Amino acid sequence: MEINGLKLPSAFIRDLQSGRLLRQRGSWELKKDESAYGEPLQTELGNVFENLAQIQKETDELPEGYTFLSVEDVEGYTETCGVQPGEIPYFWDFSKIVCFAIAGDGAPFCFDYRENEEPSVIWWADAYWQRVAPNYTSFIQLFDIPAQGQSTAG
User: Fold this and answer.
1) Cα first-last separation, the chain
2) What is the pLDDT of residues 113-149, one digit of tens each?
3) Is 39 contained in some domain?
4) Whole-prediction pTM
5) Which candidate, 101, 107, 104, 105, places its Cα nearest to that of 130?
């Protein structure tokens, strides 16, 4: 399965096909308030997009919400706030980014293919992009999600 010529991680595809990530309500909570790198992280996994059409739509619309910032705005933020844990340099080219889920507040989780064929996972942390995991498998392990076959009510 691909989006914009980028191959989705096989573990992600398995989780989609099995329905493991679907919830009736609520969000998947973090096991600990930290990223896969041990840096502070405060979020939850609100909604994983269920099919390729939805992933494609969200990926296509993603730049609209993030390309309006100017270089000057980003530089000003960086000078004022400094670099936050896990913060990655701001980018305007979304051609190697695939949006696959959102947090409870609507902030996107994305696969970032800019450096590797196996994408890392990034998240919009209110004012900057944060790398939260080196790959999908380590990302999904951050959340308290039952193993396949266990109850997911909640």
Assistant:
1) 29
2) 999 899 999 999 887 889 999 999 999 999 988 775 4
3) yes
4) 0.87
5) 107
